[in-house]
Amino acid sequence: MPAKLSVNLNAIAMLRNRRDLPWPSVTDLGRIALEAGASGLTVHPRPDQRHVRFSDLAPIRALIDTEFSSTEFNIEGFPEESFMRLVEEHRPEQVTLVPDDPAQATSDHGWDFRKSHNLLGNVVGRLKKLGLRVSVFADGDPDREALAIAKDIGADRIELYTGPYGGCYDDPAEGARLVELLGETADIAHDLGLDVNAGHDLTVANLPALVARIPRLAEVSIGHGLTSDALQYGMAETVRRFRRACGQDV
Ligand SMILES: CC(=O)[C@@H](O)[C@H](O)COP(=O)(O)O
Ligand SMILES: NCC(=O)COP(=O)(O)O
Question: What residues bind 1-deoxy-D-xylulose 5-phosphate, as annotated (predicted)?
Fold first, then answer.
């Protein structure tokens, strides 16, 4: 089964936030992405709401519930109390826990599972009681002991942080080295019984090698590269291009 595509709407929201006006509409672009066959929508609300705003979440939840009930809502973020309240209110099908400091421009590393064992254990327990799938952001580092902690605390999936892989678009040898590390990390996660997602700086160009190395990849969430292409090709055509790059029959 090819990897599913979840479209991250943060970059659309950031463009909208340039003005105190409601366009481009995050929900309308989300609808076009789902109509073009995306399997879900992702948002990463940050405490300062500089990307997606807390008020964007209810319309996205309603869009999925009323028009695309076979697709999923994925909410990503650091599990502070305000984030946990958002998740409790909007009940996404998947929560992706990311170790972001509010001052970070964007996500740039996975969890240190040894250091964050207790924090993640409590939070994952709370989310599992709500019946939500939980994914935890992980570096492409084939450290079996660390990944075993992710399994122990009750996570369902890891999301591989693919930023370094996305960043070496002009260095094929480094790309090949990094995709192998991501692949070895995924192999261990699968062996431990964790499913594997991936995301950050994925593009139509770098997806094929990733899905070839990780054929059981469950889902990719993509925002920045996909939104860039949407400006050039339109959202619907871009979603189809990314779905093909995931190996989907489009
Ligand atoms: C966890 C991750 O890699 C993405 O959620 C990324 O943080 C997207 O958010 P921005 O596009 O707002 O940086
Ligand atoms: N989880 C990663 C994500 O949602 C999108 O990241 P990016 O494509 O905006 O880098």
Answer: 46, 51, 106
